Amino acid sequence: MDQSQHQRLLIVDFGSQVTQLIARRLRESNVYCEIHPFNLVTPEFLTEFRPRAVILSGGPASVPDAGSPRPPAEIFELGVPVLGICYGQQVMQQMLGGEVLRGEGTAEFGRAYVTPAGKLDLLEGWFDGLESTGREQVWMSHGDHVAKLAPGFEVFGTSPGAPFAITADPSRHFYAVQFHPEVHHTPKGARLYENFVRIAGFDGDWTMAGYREQAVQAIRDQVGDAKVICALSGGVDSSVAAALIHEAVGDQLTCVFVDHGLLRLNEAQEVVTMFRDHMNLHVIHAEEQELFLSALEGVSDPETKRKTIGRLFIEVFQKYADGIEGARFLAQGTLYPDVIESVSFSGGPSVTIKSHHNVGGLPEKMGLKLVEPLRELFKDEVRALGKELSLPPSFIGRHPFPGPGLAIRCPGEITRAKLDILRKADAVYIDQIRRHGLYDDIWQAFCAILPVRTVGVMGDGRTYDYACALRAVTSVDGMTADFYPFSHEFLGETATRIINEVPGINRVTYDITSKPPGTIEWE
Ligand code: XMP
Description:
Strand order of the largest sheet: 2-1-3-4-11-10-9-6-7
CATH class of the largest domain: Alpha Beta
Bound molecules: xanthosine-5'-monophosphate
Radius of gyration: 27 Å
CATH topology of the largest domain: Rossmann fold
Structural class: alpha/beta
Distance between the termini: 45 Å
């Protein structure tokens, strides 16, 4: 089944920071949805897309401003349920005959409480599971407010700054809220989405098992009997993409695993063993440690390190790929957040693309077409698909690891000796985290070896060895992060183990920088 056969929901994006969360909530209800910027949603697009329901997102613009964004009026004539969120509510009211006013002391930002009002039973169950009396905690972020309702609408909830916090025209199945039900600070907000899609008649036909079946067919249709190559990094995205493509076209897929000598302890062997021996994939283990390490020997500038690794990676990958006769496709683990066109108010929609893709530029250079079977998925859906494809849970849940590997965890000059010490210290640290059952609570944890040596005393002797820094952060997407609040006991025990078990390190520090102002990696 291709996507056009799924029941589809259209999210019209007006540029809210949290539009993606709406899609997440819907996918949790097994509803297939796509986000499209308002200015690309034309009447022709609507005819083609055939949404079963529409959601109008929030956004930073102000409805009373001339030229502020509008969806096409045809949206309200499709005969399908429409849900407006924040700006989406306001634009809906304005276009259907209501009125939106600017500020005037009614702005609400952050936590607020909505008191339900009116005959909630008119709402066909849209409010099921939420407070019908009392008040409901919600998250608001608005300066303007609806001042006059469009004909046919009634009020079903108010807040101090939004007299029309919840409104609906039940006869046309139009619903609208001033708050953001998609964020965690609206604790029962997910119910509003669940109830909405139920009213819209979605069967919940979007499942990982279904996706797997449909993606396998789509890959077969695209690739035919041509060969596909895949740069396997051992990370979750490329691993799941490879497993899926292998299921679709078997031995037509060859994976190239570039071993740049900057991997963690035993990592290369683990990845190759799993894919080659346990999953029967054709994997070329490109053992190019010497090439990379000699080019990096003595290099200390972070950008030079990254550029050197990026350039060599492409050269190496191309060399191995050239040896695969008949290769016409390159597989990539691109995810949905990388392809969503985000709305920019400074000059039309802009496309957000992952900045550090190791094989960026390769398809054009080598005349290869792309196979991107994860383009419609969010990260946690990729993990669910990995599970569906029987990849081991320990593999699916792995922390992210950067393409340049340990090079950017060795600030200052890179030497083979320092990399060896770093590998051992990192292994002890991760072992500690696992033993204490903390691995899954942490977004990413690693050790960095510092370019300083410090004096210590072990036994009766003086030591003069390297210091290392432990890093552990919590994050949702790697864009912002906070340091993980380990207990002092954990930190003390870990420092003792590293110093005892790793020759070459005699001092351990814990990095308590958040991002911003720091970054997650040290370089
Ligand atoms: P920073 O250090 O920028 O890292 O806060 C954010 C996330 O991105 C990862 N990272 C990379 N991943 N190639 C990658 O594939 C890279 O060049 C790269 N640099 C950083 C980093 O590990 C963290 O998860």
